[in-house]
Amino acid sequence: LAGTVPEEPRCTVERADASLTYSLFLQRFAFSRPVILGGVTDNSAFRALCTREKLLAAFGPFPVRLSTANTYSYRKVDVPFQEYVEHLLKPQDPARLGSDTLYFFGDNNFTEWGPLFQHYVPPPFRIPGTSPAYSFGIAGSGSGVPFHWHGPGFSEVIFGRKRWFLYPPDKTPHFHPNETTLAWLQHTYPTLPPAQRPLECTLRPGEVLYFPDRWWHATLNLDTSVFISTFLG
């Protein structure tokens, strides 16, 4: 389902393709700046399992844990996956606070969802001393998570488009922790001088974004989206 959120054609995140070697990844990006990787994975088999029909058939009655879409996600709600898809998976209301917006991402039951994740091909790069953990999500157009930070990781879009905003660790963005990314984009973003704007880009299916440790980032789904992240902890 296409959303009504405009796509910014400008991309200020560096891109790399499958010719990027592991040593160059470590040297140029792993500890210093984000990069969008194209052509490094082929997840067509995983994508075929992530259609609405396939996911509902496989996981419809299973409960999923939803988080509130604010910087400090305290509230968790468990609902059957089918209820989330059929009743809660809607475009973001710009007037709704993050604490009132439920978002399916990250709290995955690996006993139930593990067989699906076995088909996912993760990016080929790792950070020494870390191990990967998957976070799978589905969200409506205009939804997203406001600015926050954690350890390094990769994020791949399976269906839809996802817009990313990133700041380095030493440049704290101006935002309200209970304001949705959509509200921030509408109210705060237009007031930012060029020097204070984040790095940003729109991720499309098959593209993978890498973000380093402690980089601030916010996300905005331009369409109803399916996505998966590989956190390196």
UniProtKB/TrEMBL annotation:
One GO cellular component term: nucleus
Signal peptide location: none
Domain JmjC: 99-233
Domain of life from the UniProt record: Eukaryota
Pfam families: Cupin_8
PROSITE patterns in the cross-refs: JMJC
InterPro entries, per the entry: Cupin_8, JmjC_dom, JMJD6_ArgDemeth/LysHydrox
One GO MF term: cis-regulatory region sequence-specific DNA binding
Name assigned to this protein: JMJD8 protein
Origin species: Sinosuthora webbiana
Origin organism lineage: Eukaryota, Metazoa, Chordata, Craniata, Vertebrata
